[in-house]
Design goal:
membrane, 0% strand, 67% helix, elongated, single chain, mainly alpha
């Protein structure tokens, strides 16, 4: 039996080191290109109060800063996961702990992001027929990240050191050496 080479297998690596950073960077570029549209499409507007034609500078700065922080989180994912896979390949337990240290706050952030998005919508939160395409994208993309992150924490489709560690003992060798 061959030991796995990573606590973050290819499926999770592709998702969290490439898909998630790509989403955040594309979102940041979209906000840079049109901060007003990015702001105005976040949630449904009341029929009697359309979005402003021109946003105040403070709103533009806030939207751009928020998008920048999201892009930064995506870039951090890429570099931490790449470093863990590259430099800790022979230390699965340590690699798992490092990846877990990244995944816990990201999972909490995913859940809170979905929660505060729905909370901020107030009475419109369950009126999905009025949701903007941007709001749908936020919820669907959020779920496309939170579900696999929960799966990673549950140990689905990955090596979990406490569960899957190859047995070792004084003078007994590993199971892989015996086979």
């Amino acid at each position: 039996m061959q030991s796995p080479s990573s606590a973050i297998p290819d499926f999770y690596y592709a998702l969290f080191a490439f898909y998630e950073p790509a989403l955040t960077i594309i979102g940041f570029i979209g906000v840079l290109c049109d901060p007003e549209a990015s702001h105005n499409t976040q949630a449904p507007w009341p029929a009697d109060s359309p979005p402003p034609a021109v946003l105040p500078k403070a709103s533009i700065v806030t939207v751009i800063q928020l998008a920048h922080v999201c892009a930064l989180m995506g870039i951090i994912n890429f570099f931490v996961l790449r470093a863990a896979r590259t430099h800790l390949a022979s230390h699965l337990a340590v690699q798992e702990k490092i990846v877990q240290a990244l995944m816990i706050p990201l999972l909490l952030g995913d859940v809170m992001h979905l929660y505060v998005t729905l909370w901020a919508l107030g009475d419109d939160r369950w009126n999905v027929a009025r949701w903007s395409p941007m709001l749908w994208t936020t919820v669907v993309v959020g779920l496309s990240l939170v579900v696999p992150r929960i799966m990673w924490h549950l140990g689905i489709w990955r090596h979990v050191d406490a569960r899957d560690r190859l047995p070792t003992g004084a003078g007994h060798g590993t199971r892989a050496e015996k086979i």
